[in-house]
Amino acid sequence: MDVKNALDCFRQDPCLPGWDDPYSVYAELRLEAPIHWCEGPRMWMIIAYHEAAEQLKDHRFSRQQHLDKLISRFGAGHIFDRQKNDLPYMDGTDHARMRHHVINAYRRIDFPSLKGFTEAFLDSRLESLSRQKQFDVVHEVADLLPVMVVSELLGVPADQQEQVGRKVGSFVRARGLTQTESTMERGDDSIAFYEEYFLPLIHDKRKNPSSDLLSRLIADPQEGVHLSDEQLLLIISSNFYSASVYTLRLLVSTLAWVMALNPDSFARIQDNRELVVPALEEVLRWDAPAQATNASVALEDIEIGGKLVKAGDSLSVLVGAANRDPKTFPDPDQFLIDRHPNPHLSFAPGLHQCLGLQIARMEGEAALHAFCDHFSSLSVIQSESQRFVGDRFRGFDRLMLDVSRR
Ligand code: HEM
């Protein structure tokens, strides 16, 4: 496809879902301007690093007002009304207070034990595949790992995890940049399912609180916080379940793909495990699982990168593109595990910074260690692999590996 067609595609769907290389298109666009108007989702997209990092911290934007636009377009009574209680769509002091509460609940997670659980799960999973030279790492590992970890945190019984995990896709899709009647209907359906599933669990924990994460999210008597059923349902099903399962699944597949593409780096990490941490950060920069943020609306006229974003305009940050900005990252298209500093935007540092980044890093590092423990080398069978196609997110739906074992 030539550049003009690629630019037309970008204007329709700025995340260029499923493309092998969206980054060369972003590079062309960055030469023209740091921010572009996209006709498809009817919003501005920031693609340059400096402007992106600034916007993520800017209080002059409202997430709630973007929902209001969706409500006026699709009518009231759908998932968008309810998302007003969801962290990514909250604003101002309500948002800051809710983040504080969730961070407090998170602080009390027993991380060493969760890490042990994760490592043991990965080890036994890869061991069980030891007779297979070729396997789909998405189906065999990436689909299961985050569901197991979040379910362990929230106390979802093992025999129900798969069923709960299956609803994840439609929930996250209902937070995409482009919305249609069908994405909205599937979002409505998944929220009804999560309501049926999690409300009894919430009611049970209200009556019998313990030291688990769910009980701590329900109420923090020391801080005087008591969340309603609706608030809890959104926090649990939208973020702790759907968003984390979705993004981690994509990260694990991307990790395997990048290691296969860079055998020298993989060999260096195997010889020196201290490189696991910077290598994971570089994977997150080089091919971010969440390529763009949720959209927000400008509360006043704001100039960004020489363009006027008018009050009422919607905007999103394409962090995947900002992570390849040569002004911040020398040789941005090179995958360099020694890259330092590496201030990537993949967890959206700012007002809506990912609250699960510690868990995400723990799982990503555990997965990379497990690949190093079990495989001496890995390659991808392209003809049997398939990129994930879906707005805002990047990774694989199927990634067929051919591995040599240690
Ligand atoms: C590879 C894994 C992950 C990536 C790349 C990722 C990325 C992100 C990004 C980019 C945002 C900002 C969204 C926005 O501005 O609209 C975000 C928000 C969030 N993430 Fe993650 N995430 C990951 C895993 C997790 C996990 C494991 C959890 C929890 C268990 C989690 C919980 C959250 C929450 C609660 C928010 C909303 C914060 C707010 O709006 O104030 N994430 N994440």
Write the layout of secondary structure elements.
Elements: H1 3-12, H2 23-32, E1 35-38, E2 43-46, H3 49-56, E3 61-62, H4 63-74, H5 79-82, H6 92-107, H7 111-128, E4 134-136, H8 137-142, H9 145-154, H10 161-166, H11 168-173, H12 181-207, H13 213-218, E5 219-220, E6 225-226, H14 229-261, H15 263-271, H16 276-286, E7 296-298, E8 302-304, E9 307-309, E10 314-317, H17 319-322, H18 357-374, E11 375-380, E12 386-387, E13 396-398, E14 400-405
Parallel strand pairs: 2-10
Antiparallel strand pairs: 1-2, 3-7, 4-14, 5-6, 7-10, 8-9, 11-14, 12-13
Helix pairs in contact: 7-9, 7-18, 9-14, 12-14, 14-18
Bound molecules: protoporphyrin IX containing FE (HEM).
Q: What features would you describe in this structure?
A:
Helix 7 (111-128) packs parallel to helix 18 (357-374) and helix 14 (229-261) runs parallel beside helix 18. The protein has one domain (3-405): Orthogonal Bundle (Cytochrome p450), CATH 1.10.630.10. The mean pLDDT is 91. It is an alpha+beta fold and 406 residues long. Strand 5 and strand 6 form a beta hairpin. It is built from 18 helices and 14 strands. It has a 5-stranded mixed beta sheet. The chain has helices spanning 3-12, 23-32, 49-56, 63-74, 79-82, 92-107, 111-128, 137-142, 145-154, 161-166, 168-173, 181-207, 213-218, 229-261, 263-271, 276-286, 319-322, 357-374; strands at 35-38, 43-46, 61-62, 134-136, 219-220, 225-226, 296-298, 302-304, 307-309, 314-317, 375-380, 386-387, 396-398, 400-405. The structure holds protoporphyrin IX containing FE (HEM). The site of protoporphyrin IX containing FE has 24 residues, from helix 14 and helix 18.
